[in-house]
From TrEMBL:
<feature type="signal peptide">
    <location>
        <begin position="1"/>
        <end position="17"/>
    </location>
</feature>
<keyword id="KW-0732">Signal</keyword>
<protein>
    <submittedName>
        <fullName>Uncharacterized protein</fullName>
    </submittedName>
</protein>
Length: 315
């Protein structure tokens, strides 16, 4: 099992060791670290994506990419981690750690732990989203949006795959060795998602960024991959404010760009403002199939690998 798959456990254990958080927050995080219901819903996701994470030597192929996505998006996996479970944990998280999340001086580590838990449901749904032709959106990311290497980047600010792959997470040698309940995997040192990489690349939105042209941005996959986050925010408003999210903070700028380049109705009434609430309807608006610009199976597989690694890192 990949070390990053029990990241939430590593994060919460490291945070609990701090003396700067409240006793109620510490108690909650300790309980979250050994929550068997959370472990049970994460395990199938781990199994589905395990071949694309840190330490993997798998060379992506059409077969392996398709197999991983079909497994990750199967009903047995998607139904195994109900929204109600995550919503309940997030509500308890906010109640126990309000000062750390929304106080005058929020605790960055507690906030990142909250983000890790918050994105679990919408991230899986985004990875499993499809375009109008029934193709997984993650396999349709244009190569000019996420080039394979720094040499192919069109601007200094563009994060190519080689940079993303090398900077998805950091290791915290100061974090204690931990073992998640009901598993036999030990983490030392802890793997912590590199929030700068996630936020700059908009990885959780399948790399959609405000700088994209309307040709690349105004497609059904943009809507399909963003809508799960809008829907989840309707059910569970993001307590610290979406612009303060270490991982999702790029949503406001992305939505503004979508509105400007694709028209106010592109999201089909799903949102009224960036990070706002809405119905999340998928129909309507521009919905043409994405123009596939990826050059090879290897390129598509590399993009999927980056997304899979990101998904693993967030768990």
């Amino acid at each position: 099992m990949m070390k990053s798959f029990i990241l939430l456990s590593a994060l919460t254990t490291a945070v609990v060791a701090q003396s700067t958080i409240s006793s109620t927050c510490s108690t909650f995080l300790t309980a979250l670290n050994s929550d068997s219901s959370l472990t049970a819903c994460i395990q199938p996701i781990i199994a589905a994506a395990s071949q694309f994470g840190p330490g993997s030597t798998t060379t992506p192929t059409t077969s392996s990419v398709t197999s991983a996505l079909n497994s990750l998006c199967s009903s047995s996996v998607t139904n195994g981690c109900p929204d109600s479970l995550i919503r309940g944990k997030l509500a308890d998280f906010y109640t126990a750690c309000t000062p750390e999340l929304t106080g005058d001086s929020p605790n960055a580590d507690v906030l990142l732990s909250y983000d890790v838990l918050y994105v679990m449901t919408p991230l899986q749904q985004a990875v499993c989203s499809k375009n109008d032709n029934g193709a997984y959106c993650v396999t349709q990311i244009p190569s000019d949006i996420v080039p394979a290497s720094s040499k192919e980047a069109s601007s200094p600010n563009q994060l190519p795959l080689d940079v993303i792959d090398s900077n998805l997470y950091t290791t915290s040698s100061s974090a204690p060795k931990v073992k998640r309940a009901n598993t036999t995997t030990t983490v030392s040192p802890a793997l912590v998602p590199n929030s700068t990489t996630f936020r700059t690349s908009n990885l959780i939105y399948l790399f959609s960024t405000p700088s994209e042209s309307s040709t690349d941005l105004c497609v059904s996959c943009t809507r399909a991959s963003l809508t799960p986050y809008i829907n989840f925010q309707e059910a569970v408003p993001y307590a610290p404010g979406i612009t303060n999210s270490p991982l999702m903070g790029g949503q406001s700028a992305l939505y503004s760009a979508i509105t400007q380049k694709c028209g106010a109705n592109f999201m089909s009434g799903a949102v009224q403002a960036a990070g706002g609430l809405g119905a999340g309807v998928l129909g309507g608006g521009k919905s043409g199939a994405m123009a596939v610009k990826v050059g090879s199976v290897g390129q598509v597989g590399a993009v999927l690998a980056a997304v899979a690694v990101g998904f693993a890192g967030l768990l």
